[in-house]
Amino acid sequence: MLTCSYFSQGKCRSCNWLEQPVEQQLTNKSSQLATLLEGLNVEQFLSPVSGHESAFRNKAKMVVMGAAHEPVLGIVGPDGSPVSLCDCPLYPQDMQALLHRLEKFVQQAGIPPYRIDKSKGELKFILLTRAQHSGEYLLRFVLRSHNAIERIERTLPQLLADWPQIKVVSVNIQPVHMARLEGDEEIFLTEATRLEEVFNGVPLFIRPKSFFQTNPVVAAGLYRTARDWVAELKPSRVWDLFCGVGGFGLHCASKEVDVTGIEIEAEAIACAKLSAEALGLDNLSFSALDSTGFAQGLDATEVPDVIIVNPPRRGIGELLCQSLSAFAPRAIVYSSCNPVTLAKDLKQIEGYEIKRVQLFDMFPHTEHAEVLVLLLRRDSER
């Protein structure tokens, strides 16, 4: 069982299931999922997929606190005091070391941390993303204004000399006086603007504002499973809605399968197009559109064999459930990070049988889980 000094000392309770052995966590998550799906006819619950207990997380979202001469990267503790999370055991050791180095960087650059209570200071957050296949990093500084950019630029060369694994550095400007993570303006301080990751031989690109799974080992298993399920159906056309950087669609693509990916975030679509180019496939199409609006704007003659949906926590919602029911593709593959909204959506999709459900433990030591579901149209061939 994972031990964590932050948890044992009551400084951080983010991993609220940490006192349970991982096997018990999986049992409890599976039981909760089964309860949520009661009343739905699920043909097969597959065994949960899990990864590492520690050092599995590829992204750190650190609040910057303290003072310029003594910065703290972490969270606000239960008593309101700053808690450094640089040694969080969810991060690989090299990532922990870099977070400590970034505390020193803030001190050397003399950047005052932002204080919500006084509306003073500049540096709000440091966001760090690690590519598992290479150990390279994307580093973002979230600032209140442009005033501290010069300090970052002056101190950055030494940081990059010490840590050549840092490939992308950017500044995000968030002037709003609230806990919102990022603003609209992104300023790159390196020539490189994206970080490459590779899952199952598929190149994926991460840009500052594009969503990316935080548990690479389990994410690779999730994409691999979706690819295998779709391959069994032998489709000629696939839609990947809420596609992000294209993980599902790119895994399911081939010279025989046309893929259309839809995602509202333009940066994510730019990454997906880069991946398609790297794979040498010209039968993939990615567009920056609203997924629900896209589906509502098409007619039945344009419906593919398989539709993949991977929505945010709110789920796909009533309108898209109605569209999917009306379009009636042969199969729907639904990947959800919120079993509660997943269950709600499944109850609103009509005309389908739930063939398989599988839980992926993307978020160990918490109640959260990723779930993959395969639905087949009732009149389709088995």
Automatic annotation (TrEMBL):
CDD domains: AdoMet_MTases (cd02440). The active site is at C337. Keywords: 4Fe-4S, Iron, Iron-sulfur, Metal-binding, Methyltransferase, rRNA processing, S-adenosyl-L-methionine, Transferase. InterPro entries: 23SrRNA_MeTrfase_RlmC, MeTrfase_TrmA_AS, SAM-dependent_MTases_sf, U5_MeTrfase_fam. Its EC number is 2.1.1.189. GO terms for molecular function: methyltransferase activity. GO terms for biological process: methylation. Belongs to the class I-like SAM-binding methyltransferase superfamily. RNA M5U methyltransferase family. RlmC subfamily. PANTHER family: RNA M5U METHYLTRANSFERASE, TRNA (URACIL(54)-C(5))-METHYLTRANSFERASE. This is 23S rRNA (uracil(747)-C(5))-methyltransferase RlmC. It comes from Shewanella submarina.
